């Protein structure tokens, strides 16, 4: 199984596991108790615990420094592959139980990382069982009927599962979040200058006059004028999709109102791939749809596609503009 080199040990010593991992203690202990009671490795609590454990380990600094034992990348990429297998139903609690116990016991960092490496090796050597159904119902590429009913029914199945996945770990208006991530950054001065120009009533474009009524076409026109005049030097470029055929890279058919891609990437302005999307945006005419469950789930479906296409992404920004109100996630 996995052996740690002196260099690996130095990385682990210099980049110790964060408290985020040990905050999972209660959830992991609950999963262990549930497994003892039911012996069901696909129990919802057990699977949720493994999901949280993998994503937390994926965010540890050492994961980006330790080399992969199954490929040419780093351990974080291997953990992303494990997470994808978990979502597909090919990884269960019993595969990860030894690792869970080490975390519960707060064992040595070296032993925990060795268990992680052993897990990636073990899973990579085995082929996924053909009889295991996927844990997420993907939207079919084409509807099975001309009325599109099949597609809508599939969405109705997917939404509750997404909601169950994000409930309990999705929070609004977290105190201190804005100050930590957006104040006193190297780009703060540029952002402030753009805001002052946008809101100045005597500015050339009179940007403070947001479309009223805020129809999608008018909002898109406003958005792209803003980009052309004020964001021409930004690192990303906003685009829209005219049809579902404009967006590739997923088995599900999706159409995104606004998406941000890195400037200088694919030369196509009309065709996009989920692998290239940095930020997703949703436009709605009614201000009543801001902060609703339906709008959040719609953004979550887009974010789910981004993570599926970019498994090493640690976070994805998304936003909704409903009427003249905007909420960013």
From TrEMBL:
Residues 141-151 have a biased composition (Polar residues). It comes from the Eukaryota. Residues 128-156 are annotated as: Disordered. Pfam families: Pkinase_fungal. InterPro entries: Pkinase_fungal (IPR040976). Residues 256-329 form the Fungal-type protein kinase domain. PANTHER family: FUNK1 11, FUNK1 6. This is Fungal-type protein kinase domain-containing protein.
